[in-house]
Design goal:
108 residues, mainly alpha, 3 strands, 42% helix, elongated
Length: 108
């Protein structure tokens, strides 16, 4: 699960070298729950006094998001084999048109 938290676009299994990814949309859920936690913490600390009173709610909200999101992802993610990427073949050289400098039939 630590690799899932560290790599956002999937990762390779260290044992079998298979490409794995989160397939359930757990990242979206984790982000929304983290944002809700950040908003709640910012709202609860909005009346903080003192010289840092204007900055502390934002700081606490960022910390709450950074702690809650990974925890939710750990418990909701379903790591499965990633679908195979399509193989892209190099385009074959086209023989029509006469050469590099020739303009052919309406397309440029």
């Amino acid at each position: 699960m630590t690799k899932l938290l560290a790599y956002s676009d999937g990762f390779e299994c260290s044992n079998c070298h298979t490409r794995l990814e989160d397939t359930t949309g757990g990242r979206s859920l984790a982000i929304w729950v983290g944002l809700a936690a950040g908003w709640l913490v910012a709202w609860l600390t909005r009346n903080a006094g003192g010289p840092l009173g204007a900055v502390l709610p934002e700081l606490y909200a960022i910390l709450a998001f950074g702690i809650v999101s990974p925890l939710v992802l750990i418990f909701t993610a379903s790591v499965e084999r990633a679908p195979e990427a399509p193989v892209v073949e190099a385009a074959a050289a086209s023989g029509h048109g006469g050469g590099h400098g020739a303009v052919s039939g309406g397309h440029h």
